[in-house]
Amino acid sequence: MPQNLAELQVDRQHSRAEQPEVPNGVTRQPVDADGAPAERICARGATTERQILFLPGGGFTSIAGNGQRRFAAAISQRTKACVLLTHYRLAPEHPFPAGRDDGVTAYRWLARQTKAENLAILGDSAGGNLTLATALKLREDGDDLPASLTATSAPADLALTGGTFRTLKDRDPLLTESHRKLVYDSYTKNGTIDVGDPLMSPLRADLTGLPPTLLMVGTQEVLLGDNLALGDKLRKARVEVDVQAWPGQVHAWSLVLEEAPESTMTNDQIAAHLLRAWASVR
Q: Which residues lie in Basic and acidic residues bias regions (predicted)?
């Protein structure tokens, strides 16, 4: 994870130089989702009758690459739905609410092709935050909501002051204090944007009316406490929610497809959640 702006620029240079790749049997089509650049990733046998809006992670600052493409392909293979990997605008050049607004734009683009009941929104890390924030903005604007939401390793409160930021800081090798400061400063325009805005920090929002939601978090990441609290708040709002705290896992473990069997198991759980939600609206 980049620790400062200089490292972020190097990280972006590497990402731009990366040749886009997807697994065999998977197609990748660059698309313009009403101004939000994206890639439609479809495994063999997948269709656009059901589609998933995928908002990738990267601390609101990093460019999505082949790791996110492989993850999108894995979910498409399991669900037979095409996945729209959205390259939303990045901070610090584009702080809040640019990324969320691009998520809303891409969702509405999909909703003109596929009924909302056949859509889902999925995000990891910062993309998990954007998944929830996008859904909240859609609800606020009166849009038809998707069948389900999935957020893995999501920062639910951008104040970054939850208890496990203290108790697990020595166990989380990825979300270090310097990386968290980079994310906070970038997305909040050096603290000039209020992190209390519920569309920035979903833990502070009224969550009533959101669709069935899956939250996944590792027990070794500093975001554990916020995700558990978010699950409690969703239950109190009478939202159907499944909160999974994965023992021994660190931030964004679901993307480590080749290296960890837990990643494969996680993606099986995500696919099962999506398929159950779609089946329930039939």
A: 9-19
The active-site residue, picked from 62, 153, 221, 263, is: 221
In eight-state DSSP terms, residue 18 is S
Work out the pLDDT band at 257, boundaries 50, 70, 90.
low
Instruction: Specify whether 125 is catalytic.
Output: yes
In the chain, the percentage of residues whose pLDDT exceeds 70 is: 98
User: Is 213 a residue whose pLDDT tops 70?
Assistant: yes
Catalytic residue chosen out of the listed positions 87, 179, 251, 273 = 251
Concerning whether 251 is annotated as a catalytic residue, the answer is yes
Closest CA to 121 of 84, 157, 74: 84
CATH number at residue 14: 3.40.50.1820
Q: How many domains in the chain?
A: 1
- pLDDT tens per residue across span 74-94: 999 999 999 999 999 999 999
Cis peptide before 97 (omega within 30 of 0): yes
Domain that holds residue 259: 5-280
How far is the C-alpha of 277 from the C-alpha of 239, rounded, in Å?
Answer: 13
14 included as an active-site residue: no
Q: What is the DSSP letter of 4?
A: S
DSSP string, 111-150: HTTS-GGGEEEEEETHHHHHHHHHHHHHHHHTPPPPSEEE
Predicted pLDDT at 172: 86
* Distance of alpha carbon 210 from the chain centroid: 16
What type of residue sits at position 145? L
- Give the lowest-confidence range in 102-106, 178-182, 270-274: 178-182
Q: Which one is catalytic: 62, 76, 125, 254?
A: 125
